[in-house]
């Protein structure tokens, strides 16, 4: 399989997180810089196995474009023009609702031969757009060992609630929840580059965490009573997968992609705008180590399903289906 990945790492992701981790599943594949390709240059992050970097218009390569619906949206057309014999695959990461008014993104996806979504819910919604490319769902992954606690799970009480990330975050909800937790005497730790500007507060129980190392991030998950993820919408989430791998309960809006597909149930979900319910779920784990330990076991076991190593055969099968023109979902 002459596979070449096209895209770049997100600067906000820790070394073991982010969609680019798929590159390690195919060590013989090449990896091209997306921004450079859009500018007309071939810059290799990793050369294909054997050191050959020869790509011609007649080459039959499989190009897998990361973030084909947003930061990589210019790339399918560039690839189609430059390598007309190639098979082009795009990953879509945003909720389908974000593409409703984005004609450029939809046109970009139509330049591909196949589309990979990161959830079945997202794939079904995307199928209603009438795109010409076949649509296939493969979940996002996590390296579970990178976030799994070093020591066995303990019955120690956790006294803080963790918030991680920026993308599609509902900052109004975050503000409401952290303030309600503070009233209850519970400390919130908010980790994200936009947090300080979005949550201007001097409350000593609301802490803005600076950029941290991956080891520090794993420890933060381990030492938190729960992760609260107030998002406007979602398909997949690094924070959810990392938290699951660490055995940290996840409290989020009742979004099917997160609750049904990743977490496996909605026991810690809340309806959008029901911030009181989110806080109530968090308080179930603060000071109740036995409840957290029980939920930790469930989440850590489920996280194994999404270990990147388990996803290798799924990606291989999807690439073959796209090459052969197999349609995964009814159109």
Automatic annotation (TrEMBL):
UniProt KW Cell membrane keyword: no
Pfam families: Glyco_trans_1_4, Glyco_transf_4
A GO molecular function held by the record: glycosyltransferase activity
InterPro entries, alphabetized: Glyco_trans_4-like_N
Keyword Transmembrane: no
Origin: domain of life: Bacteria
Ranges for domain Glycosyltransferase subfamily 4-like N-terminal: 67-142
Residue stretches in coiled coil: none
GO BP term, pick one: lipopolysaccharide biosynthetic process
UniProt KW keywords: Glycosyltransferase, Transferase
Name of the protein in question: Glycosyltransferase
Organism ancestry: Bacteria, Bacillati, Actinomycetota, Actinomycetes, Kitasatosporales
